UniProtKB/TrEMBL annotation:
GO BP annotation list: glycosphingolipid biosynthetic process
Family per record: Belongs to the glycosyltransferase 32 family.
Keywords from the named record: Glycosyltransferase, Golgi apparatus, Membrane, Transferase
PANTHER family: ALPHA1,4-GALACTOSYLTRANSFERASE 1-RELATED (PTHR12042:SF21), LACTOSYLCERAMIDE 4-ALPHA-GALACTOSYLTRANSFERASE ALPHA- 1,4-GALACTOSYLTRANSFERASE (PTHR12042)
Record localization: Golgi apparatus membrane
Topology in the lipid bilayer: Single-pass type II membrane protein
Name of the protein described by the UniProt record: Lactosylceramide 4-alpha-galactosyltransferase
One Pfam family named in its UniProt record: Gly_transf_sug
Record InterPro entries: A1-4-GlycosylTfrase_dom, Glycosyltransf_32, GlycoTrfase_DXD_sugar-bd_CS, Nucleotide-diphossugar_trans
Length: 350
C-alpha cells in the first residue's frame, strides 16, 4: 500500500511537471499566462457584435478584390439604424489613402449589415473618389477556406472582452491572407504613396512592432504564421494580444530573433520593419501635440513628420480632442492638404 501511494505521488508530480513544461512552451515569450488552459465561454461584451449575424442582401464578392493592389480599412461597430457612417476623421483617413494612391482600390470593409450609406456631406465627398468602395462582408462566409474557418465557427471571437477591436485584428490578418495588399487603421492620415512598398510593418518604438500599418504580398508565409498564431493563441481577455502581439510573435519566429532592433530586412527574408519615423513619428504619449496651437509645438510636429509615410493620431486618446477648422493645429494642417474634400465639408470642429 505504501509503495502504491509513493508511485501515485510520483505520477502526480510527473504530471504536474509536464503541465508546467507545456505551459512554459506554449505561453507568450514575455509572459506566463495560464488562461489558454481553459476554454473561455462567451463574454458579456459579445452583444456588441451580435449584428454580424443579421442578414444582408449583398456582400463583398471576393473576386472583385485585386490581389496585392488594394488598401483595406475596417469599421467593425454595429450600425443599428441601417445607415453606414464614418466620422469625419475616419473619412479623412480613407480619403488620404485614395488621394495619394490613385492606382489602388481603397476598400472600407464592414461586418455590420447596412441598408444604405449616409448622405452626410463628408461621406458624399469621400465617395466622389472613383477608387473608394464601402462593402459589407459576410462574417459567416469570410473565413471559409482560411486557417480560421473552424475557429470562427466555434465562436471564439465571442469570447473577447473587446470584440469590435479584436474583430478588426482578426480581419486585418485574414484579409491580407486572402488578398495581399495593405491594411491601415482608421485614425491616420496618409502622406505619401505606397508605390514601391510591400512586405512591411511599422515599429512603434525600439522594442515594439505595431499593427496599424501592414503590407504583404498574397501568400506571404509571415501572414500565414500570423493566422496560425491567432488560431492557437487568441486571448479575448487581453486587449493587445491579438493585434500587435500577433505580428510581433510572428516576426520573432520568422526572423528568428527576439529584439525588434535586430529585425533587419536581410534577416527577415525581405520583410522590412520600418522605423518609428515612418508611421509613428509622434508616439502615443505625445498625441496631444497634433492638436496644439502653440507655434513651437506646431513647428516641432511638422518637422518631425516631414519624412513620414503617414501619421497615426491615436484615436483611443485623441477622439474627444477638438480640432478646429482653420486653425494651425498640426492635424488640421495635414488634413486640409491630404483629405481636402472631406475637410472642406466641415464648418467648425473636425
Amino acid at each position: 500500500m505504501v509503495v502504491f501511494f509513493r508511485v501515485k505521488k510520483h505520477l502526480l508530480l510527473l504530471c504536474a511537471a509536464l503541465i508546467i513544461l507545456v505551459i512554459v512552451y506554449f505561453s507568450d515569450e514575455d509572459s506566463l499566462d495560464l488562461g489558454w488552459l481553459i476554454q473561455p465561454g462567451e463574454a458579456p461584451e459579445a452583444h456588441l457584435i451580435k449584428c454580424y449575424n443579421d442578414p444582408q442582401l449583398s456582400s463583398l464578392d471576393d473576386g472583385s478584390v485585386l490581389k496585392n493592389k488594394s488598401i483595406f480599412f475596417f469599421e467593425t461597430s454595429c450600425h443599428h439604424n441601417g445607415t453606414f457612417l464614418l466620422n469625419s476623421r475616419q473619412a479623412c483617413a480613407v480619403e488620404s489613402a485614395a488621394l495619394v494612391n490613385p492606382d489602388k482600390d481603397v476598400l472600407v470593409l464592414v461586418p455590420s449589415p447596412f441598408d444604405k450609406i449616409s448622405t452626410q456631406s463628408h461621406m458624399t465627398a469621400l465617395l466622389s473618389y472613383p477608387n473608394v468602395r464601402i462593402e459589407h462582408i459576410d462574417m459567416s462566409k469570410y473565413f471559409i477556406g482560411t486557417p480560421l474557418e473552424n475557429w470562427y465557427k466555434q465562436g471564439r471571437l465571442k469570447t473577447s472582452r473587446w470584440p469590435t477591436s479584436h474583430t478588426s485584428d482578426i480581419l486585418r490578418y485574414t484579409t491580407l491572407w486572402k488578398f495581399g495588399g495593405y491594411y491601415v487603421d482608421l485614425d491616420v492620415v496618409i502622406l505619401k504613396s505606397f508605390n514601391g512598398l510591400t512586405n512591411f510593418v511599422g515599429a512603434e518604438d525600439e522594442e515594439d512592432v505595431a499593427a496599424g500599418f501592414l503590407a504583404f504580398n498574397y501568400g506571404h508565409p509571415l501572414i500565414h504564421l500570423a493566422m496560425l498564431d491567432l488560431k492557437y493563441k487568441f486571448k479575448g481577455w487581453r486587449w493587445g494580444n491579438n493585434g500587435p502581439g500577433v505580428i510581433t510573435r510572428a516576426l520573432k519566429r520568422y526572423c528568428r530573433v527576439q529584439e525588434v532592433s535586430k529585425m533587419t530586412k536581410q534577416r527577415c527574408g525581405g520583410v522590412e520593419v520600418m522605423p518609428p519615423s515612418a508611421f509613428y513619428a509622434i508616439p502615443w504619449r505625445s498625441w496631444m501635440y497634433f492638436f496644439s496651437t502653440k507655434q513651437s509645438d506646431v513647428d516641432w510636429v511638422m518637422k518631425t513628420v516631414n519624412q513620414s509615410i503617414a501619421i497615426h493620431v491615436w484615436n483611443f486618446h485623441s477622439a474627444s480632442k477638438n480640432a478646429t477648422v482653420g486653425s494651425n493645429q498640426p492635424y488640421i494642417l495635414l488634413a486640409s492638404r491630404f483629405c481636402p474634400k472631406v475637410y472642406a465639408t466641415q464648418r467648425t470642429i473636425f
